[in-house]
Design a protein that fits this description.
Layout lengths: L2 H23 L4 H13 L2 H4 L15 E4 L2 E4 L16 H10 L14 H4 L4 H13 L23 H8 L13 H13 L3 H4 L17 E3 L2 E3 L15 H10 L1 E2 L3 E2 L2 H9 L6 H11 L25 H6 L17 H8 L1 H4 L26 H9 L1 E5 L2 E5 L8 H15 L8 H8 L6 H31 L1
Antiparallel strand pairs: 1-2, 3-4, 5-6, 7-8
Helix pairs in contact: 2-6, 8-12, 10-12, 14-17, 17-18
Length: 470
């Protein structure tokens, strides 16, 4: 009589365990895995979590992200149980992405854009987890660890930073926007984390909400203003032009993607559906316009064909003799342009008819008041694959010194772009090193010194008090 209930209870318990175990081992829906793959591309996960060199293995890590605080090495996020995230539960995965905390409690650095990813929906988080656990090939390669210099290497300092700058709030679409623009807002503000580059940062390196998408300098480049302002932003671009730029990385008469934007096109934006690309355009055109008061017309409207006489290339910008043509150390812009650039971009900066070689006239880069993007493109080149094919430009960082890069850039600005934008060799040297350091980094030695003095003062005060009491 007593055994029967016990057996029944055991059977029920075993049955419940079997169901739970079967559910845990049940394969994910292929549609959910495919959805997760799309979301991972929209979130541009591959841009950072790649190998140092292109090995063809996705999400293996090892890529070095250069930050003002030091080099951050992206970890392996394949489902390897020894080297990646294969042992992570969904809760571990969710906490890392939306809260910036690794299993074990160690904070992540905000190079992982969890301040933006915190708005990713629950459904999308489950799809991402399904993809990374069941749609990615595990690779048992352990990526090197990140070692930032003192005091930035103390991960605990991220705890108060998160208290101040991490809201833990879900994404809420702006009321009054069309459904299309609301979809674009979700893509821009969360998965696409566009503000990570295009929003300036405060003294503590957090994004400034009041200047959202107003443009920012990073790594020597300038991520331009992408608010709806028709002069400083993208208000003068059509929705279809923005969508085409996201897909291909270039739009004739508007601009060409290079640097970090080229990587975003290559790894993320070109894979988005046309509907999502147009949704991003719709949202950007609905954002609060922010204008630089010093700008009077859009960057792409500064440039127009200005015929350059062939004699200029024979005598140079400074009208030197033709011996300069044989001098590899020349700092004459026309000479350098004719030898290094004209074969692709044309003597008149017109590019090729099919836009494979980008025109230098009618470009936001050559019409910008900020010379950073043109200089960095000369230094680092372009290696971008868009939906319409590959674009390539060699890097000249090793072939040209700072004076020569400045000379070529100024020749381009003078003849094909905004003539009042000029650059010096000293500015090129700073850009070559990754741009100017933020105040937090430059002031840190002084802050540490003041902190040490304050600590010594406190110790001295305590010692004196103890002696006085004795």
């Amino acid at each position: 009589m007593r055994i029967a209930p016990l057996l029944a209870g055991s059977a029920a318990l075993f049955g419940a365990f079997s169901v739970a175990h079967a559910q845990a081992d049940a394969p994910y829906d292929p549609a959910q895995i495919a959805r997760g793959e799309y979301l991972a591309k929209a979130a541009d996960c591959a841009a950072c979590h790649r190998t140092r060199e292109d090995s063809g293995k996705a999400f293996v890590g090892g890529y070095v992200i250069t930050s003002p605080m030091g080099d951050i090495v992206a970890p392996n996020i394949t489902p390897s149980k020894t080297a990646g995230i294969g042992a992570w539960s969904f809760e571990d995965f969710d906490r890392a992405i939306r809260k910036g905390v690794r299993p074990g409690g160690a904070p992540l650095y905000p190079a992982m854009p969890y301040t933006d990813y915190q708005g990713v929906s629950d459904a999308d988080m489950h799809a991402l987890y399904a993809y990374f656990m069941h749609g990615v090939t595990p690779v048992d390669t352990i990526a090197p660890k990140t070692h930032l210099p003192f005091p930035f290497g103390i991960r605990a300092i991220m705890i108060p930073w998160n208290w101040v700058f991490l809201s833990h709030k879900p994404f809420i679409a702006t009321a009054g926007l069309s459904p299309q623009a609301q979809r674009g807002q979700y893509l821009v503000q969360t998965l696409g984390h566009c503000g990570a580059c295009h929003t300036p940062r405060n003294l503590l390196m957090a994004e400034r909400p009041s200047k959202a998408f107003a443009g920012a300098d990073l790594g020597g480049w300038h991520a331009p203003n992408i608010t709806s302002d028709p002069i400083s932003g993208v208000g003068g671009w059509g929705d279809a032009e923005i969508a085409k730029y996201l897909a291909n990385g270039h739009v004739s008469g508007k601009g060409v993607a290079a640097g970090g934007m080229a990587e975003a096109v290559d790894n993320s934006l070109r894979y988005m559906t046309p509907a999502d690309q147009l949704a991003i355009a719709a949202y950007l055109k609905s954002t609060t316009p922010i204008r630089d008061p010093h700008e009077t017309r859009a960057a792409f409207n500064w440039t127009s064909p200005k015929p350059v006489p062939l004699s200029a290339y024979e005598t140079g910008d400074n009208h030197k003799d033709q011996a300069a043509l044989k001098d590899s150390s020349t700092t004459d812009g026309a000479t350098l342009y004719a030898g290094a650039c004209a074969s692709c971009h044309g003597l008149q900066g017109q590019g090729s008819k099919d836009d494979f070689y980008a025109p230098l006239v009618g470009s936001s880069t050559t019409g910008s008041a900020n010379p950073s993007d043109l200089v960095m493109t000369i230094l680092t080149g372009v290696n971008r694959t868009g939906a319409d094919g590959k674009s390539f430009m060699p890097a000249f960082a090793e072939q040209m010194n700072d004076d020569q890069v400045a000379a070529v850039a100024n020749h381009v600005f003078n003849h094909f772009g905004r003539a009042d934008t000029q650059v010096t060799a000293e500015q090129v040297a700073v850009m070559r090193k990754g741009g100017a350091k933020p105040l937090l980094v430059t002031a840190m030695p002084w802050l540490l010194g003041l902190g040490a003095l304050a600590g010594l003062g406190i110790v001295a005060f305590i010692v004196l008090r103890m002696r006085k009491r004795a």
